[in-house]
Amino acid sequence: MGKTLTEKILSSHLREGVLETGKPIGILIDQTLTQDATGTMAYLQFEAMGLPRVQNELAVSYVDHNTIQVGFENADDHRYLQTVAAAKGVIFSRPGNGICHQVHLERFGKPGKTLLGSDSHTPTGGGLGMIAIGAGGLDVAVAMAGGPFHLIAPKVIEIRLHGKLRNWVSAKDVILTVLERYGVKGNVNCIFEYTGEGVASLEVPERSTICNMGAECGVTTSLFPSDEKTRLFLKAQGREADWTELAADADATYDGLFEIDLSTLEPKMACPHSPGNIAPVSSLAGKSVDQVLIGSCTNSSYADMKKVADILDGHTVAPNVSLGIAPGSREVLLMLSQDGSLGKLIQSGARILESACGFCIGNHQSPGTEGVSLRTSNRNFEGRSGTKTGQVYLVSPETAALAAITGRFTDPLSDHGISYPKVVHPTQFLIDDTMFVFPPEDGAEVQIFRGPNIGDPPKNTPLKESLEGYVTIKVGDKITTDHIMPAGARLKYRSNIPVYSKYVFEPVDEHFSERCTENQDRGKDNFIVAGSSYGQGSSREHAAICPMYLGVKAVIALSIERIHQNNLCNFGIIPLTFVDEADYQKLDQNDELVLENVKQQIEGKEVVLKNKTKSLEIRLLCDITDEQRSMLIGGGLLNILKERN
Ligand code: MIC
Ligand code: SF4
Fold it and tell me: Which CATH number is 5-264's, of 3.30.70.890, 3.30.499.10, 3.40.640.10, 3.40.50.11540?
């Protein structure tokens, strides 16, 4: 029987288990990437493992998230990251060099390899034919130590592409179509594998846009074959030697099929406040726009930016609009500066932003009250922009550029009088690796810098006989990690868990952490009750570390997203789901709960929770792997790694 490309890459990296859908497996990780906001914890954890040097093929540390400096914290974090990289054999990508996913694609990604990144958009690398997965920092630290990455062997969904996109319709509209079909929940432990003759019409950066935002569906990753287009991209990056041809067998069988005729697609958008709220751009044509932001790891390739420059050429940004543009990497920015595009952008009135995450993570450029913001990024969760009432729509670069000129939602397929630009995919990129710092052969002598904002990663205590405490918060469906652990203004506390913990659930209930501390002081445990798709979005393990620090012992939800569930187990918080969904109604904030004989109970799949306040029992599922069970019992992965050594 023929193999899917996913099966081929996974089986060549399989280290533990059998490759059967739904079964736990461990795979070897060739490449790792970290970014600064998750990286400090990842390297502190790697240091705690006591290894002199990283063991995997290639490890890169990027600084792209926290580049806005107010106070000393970010600059100190950057110094820690640079020195620890030199000491441990990691390549350091300096601030200004660009967004991790864009830069990794340009300079390091290789077809057929595995990549684990401490960022949920690591699947961007799937555009090059690699299995690229997002995970918590601790999982990445383990991979850097040469350990396997544990996952559930995924279902492989075939997305078969036919035809060719029309002018004004682009890769973003393809992934928005996929999001329309699959939504943002219910796709845990699946991989989207793209096939069909339509694949050949898409260039690597377009494929990467599609893989990048597959993360919003909650899939493990997305994957394209490696073909002639891949070879040409790598050749233009001076890396043709990294190319290998890869594709699924013609008779491969898949667990599902979605066919898309590219030639019939229309411009789409994700409306507030979820990447899954899809509508055609035409449905809001004429609505006024306050802000347009172009960039982020989804849409900031050279081709995207050049297209935008050519659309804006000769026009002035509408008076009601603030337009910000952040090219994805220094390579892209340099090329735009040399081909005249940067001049066109500046001339149009665009505000040129740093090549970094910036607006996408709410670091700056927050819209005004109820401000309508069109962005080419991938997440529009409520409040992520830094403005709770902000109305963020996710669109293609074409749709964004047109709105910047007209000041209104403008259907790119309508008669707007602006001609479609010639799309350029360079045959030679401007290669300049001078902003990477390559580690010395032996980093033993390197002094690692630690500022006062950087503390040791906290550890949990081994699991108690029974858990007794309160429902400290009850939340609804689709609670994202941005709700649990806000970024933006709070991002600079990523390396300081005691301070960052004060902001857990800040956007939902700013008194949560106080209640947790009060319960802790009384010797009581904290429980979180949630609806479906809890923990969607980011890979930030702080959404588990900080609740752990506040004495949260279990999360009881209708469903929990993959990366977050792994992070919970890594830090010793028990993930539980309802056997009977109706029981969600039987738990309220402040209810007193008891989980007796908890170690014994989690040995089986079902767990009985007592709600003392309501005098009733609730059946819960503890659907985890044996490895995760030992983490919970031992009080987290760091503890059990220590025991094993
Ligand atoms: C995001 O887009 O939410 C982030 C910021 O890149 C996160 C990582 C983080 O929280 O540091 C992600 O996607 O994993
Ligand atoms: Fe950065 Fe935004 Fe991409 Fe996250 S989604 S890596 S914040 S650009």
Answer: 3.30.499.10
